[in-house]
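Supplementary notes for students who missed Thursday's class. We covered one full example, reproduced here. Read the sequence, then the structure, then the short commentary at the end.
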Amino acid sequence: MNKKIKNIFVEGPITPSSIAKSIENHQTKSMIGAHNIFLGQVRADIIGKKKIIAIEYSAQIEISNQLCHEIREAAFLKYDLTCMHIYHSIGKVKAGEICFFVFVSSSHRSPVFQSLEKIVNEIKDRLPIFGKEIFDDKTYQWKVNN
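Structure (token representation):
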């Protein structure tokens, strides 16, 4: 497990074009037969009478990247994965925009189906990433992951 620790953080929303580019980059990898993708999107939830218009993400970046590296390496050991990409937004992301992107690939479909939910849940459970929900009246509250 001597692989370089990757920075998973992207400033602002994860754009549809960057997601498409990531998919496009895998077309040359002809030993891959299956992909699975999770996209987390900011919801415009109504809490009380206030509507969420954005979430401002912050994180303990070094710790988050280390923990994500451990999750990633454990997944490669447990599942027959060929490739994995993980990105999470930092900063302000408006309702409707993508804030979390996990992309796994394998030669067959079973490993991508088995691994993705576990990877996403571990990241959400273990990484010190914090979201400040910003309401339409300009007030805010700290987000509780669920």
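Commentary. Strands lie at 9-11, 34-41, 46-47, 50-59, 83-94, 98-106, 129-135, 140-142. The chain is about 30% helix and 35% strand. If anything here is unclear, bring it to office hours.
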